[in-house]
Amino acid sequence: xxxxxxxxxxxxxxxxxxxxxxxxxxxxxxxxxxxxxxxxxxxxxxxxxxxxxxxxxxxxxxxxxxxxxxxxxxxxxxxxxxxxxxxxxxxxxxxxxxxxxxxxxxxxxxxxxxxxxxxxxxxxxxxxxxxxxxxxxxxxxxxxxxxxxxxxxxxxxxxxxxxxxxxxxxxxxxxxxxxxxxxxxxxxxxxxxxxxxxxxxxxxxxxxxxxxxxxxxxxxxxxxxxxxxxxxxxxxxxxxxxxxxxxxxxxxxxxxxxxxxxxxxxxxxxxxxxxxxxxxxxxxxxxxxxxxxxxxxxxxxxxxxxxxxxxxxxxxxxxxxxxxxxxxxxxxxxxxxxxxxxxxxxxxxxxxxxxxxxxxxxxxxxxxxxxxx
Amino acid sequence: xxxxxxxxxxxxxxxxxxxxxxxxxxxxxxxxxxxxxxxxxxxxxxxxxxxxxxxxxxxxxxxxxxxxxxxxxxxxxxxxxxxxxxxxxxxxxxxxxxxxxxxxxxxxxxxxxxxxxxxxxxxxxxxxxxxxxxxxxxxxxxxxxxxxxxxxxxxxxxxxxxxxxxxxxxxxxxxxxxxxxxxxxxxxxxxxxxxxxxxxxxxxxxxxxxxxxxxxxxxxxxxxxxxxxxxxxxxxxxxxxxxxxxxxxxxxxxxxxxxxxxxxxxxxxxxxxxxxxxxxxxxxxxxxxxxxxxxxxxxxxxxxxxxxxxxxxxxxxx
Lengths: 373, 318
Prior knowledge:
The complex is a heterodimer of chains A (373) and B (318). Chain A has 373 residues and is mainly α. Chain A has 14 helices and four strands. In chain A, strands 2-1-3-4 form a four-stranded mixed β-sheet, with helices on both faces. In chain A, helix 7 packs antiparallel against helix 13, helix 9 crosses helix 10 (258-282) and helix 10 packs parallel to helix 14 (347-367). Chain B has eleven helices and 14 strands. Chain B has helices spanning 45-52, 74-78, 96-106, 111-125, 140-152, 170-185, 197-202, 220-224, 244-252, 277-286, 301-313; strands spanning 5-16, 19-30, 34-38, 60-65, 68-69, 81-84, 158-162, 189-194, 205-210, 213-218, 234-241, 257-263, 266-272, 292-296. Helices cover 35% and strands 29% of the residues of chain B. In chain B, a hairpin with a 2-residue loop joins strand 1 and strand 2 (19-30). At the A-B interface, helix 1 and helix 8 of A face helix 3 of B.
């Protein structure tokens, strides 16, 4: 009689002891993700506000001052000083003293009163695309609104004919942490869990203890499950602490059911640990295992939809994203944490994550050779 | 006459790419034997052990343990064999106690049976003072005992030991052999690789592997009777004297002296029968060594292996 999970208990007993005996491994599992979360969470802020702006007011009239105030009142621009000339303005932007230069040429008020087109010039530093596009939009809006109001006044209307009232759902203040932190959790979990399980078998191979396991009646499923379960427990503990930090440090509340979030996290970690184990069964040493992990980790930063929306990617990158567990988990995180989505709304993501985990885990057990060569 | 064969192999061969690590090795080891497996580094000793334990797949030939085929019935075999690898593969972070517990559980021992076997092996190996110490902090001798205790947890009937005494102090070495004799007396079959000739002399059977081929296999006394080792027209002489290195230079050049090697305070010669004691004495005196004790001697296992290796190198066949 062959039990499919023979030896599981023994491996579980040993792995738990080894993990807690080796504080360095535990430290490297816990510490970097925490630091990464905090660093990423604070650094990844795409809210464009208070952009350094230089003003060159050559008109010096009430109208010109009013327009400048309208710019500053958007909160997008922050006045950092005055320029003397248009070359001085361009020079200051080149030197990085300001991102935006606002020039109001002489005759601005006069042109307005005469009914001619009054021109102003906005110089924008294009070397930072996020700041540039945000500044451009705001500048155009300010100008457009100013023009419309004047047109309305001229035709005797008191209100604009059309008014757009946008309402931002789920993240009303458009805070970056709300968008990024759930995604960062997906990324940092991936790094810690994959590294840990990728080392699991490689270390035994390097030390020669694998031989000892292979001559025993231990089954392949028992070995794989015994290796995976302790890391699943530790990773889950880590995931929960990351979610708590998200709520307490970054003030991102979990809008949805936290049990759904937990289920998504368990499935995700299971898939990642299985991938790590798969690497572990193929790598000959720890360096090789690390490099193989990087092959999975790097693409998931770019192609999982963490920063760039997947819909606009070339098909090849979209396809890469489709096979990464991180893609499904980050989507789930945002759906559950921000939009309060339920399991039923995103059942496909749950099924895909579970399927990936089970498939890769089975692959590990079935493909694992109980021979040395 | 022949007892039950516990380890058998026929034409066992392992190739790694173009390199043949084990080349058609055949032997039979009876129950209760201590089989000493000797050979230079890289000759294929460990590979044979790994083939017998099922860690490597044989390229050709077959092996049986306790009548079970290694290629087809490995799962049943695993419960019967113990393996102590060259590196004493222990978990360094785990204590003695935990290592023993782990290996016991790995073989399905639990509860009372586990405790009983644990106590038994602690008593046998005297590991009691080190139960709470991490395996990584044990000295070589104690690591070796622990590794052996781990390999014995599941009452194996065949125990494979790959260079169990490499890097171990002489006292630990002697104590290990005492244990091995005890196991063998209790009916266990032992397969031991070693570099030490004195260990080989203690084995009930020895095999010598050279350049991937099994050169010889049998009981030490039988091997010493081999005609190749004892040419009919030559004899082995032990010469004990002062300044053996000087003496060696003198005797090596003598006509009729086939081989001459130093052994501590003496030299072992293989010389033609007509080389007389007086002749040797005279030559030593010429070299400035007036006194020498000259006796005929029986060949040692080392002589056997040297003779066989030289014959192989000269392209001959056994």
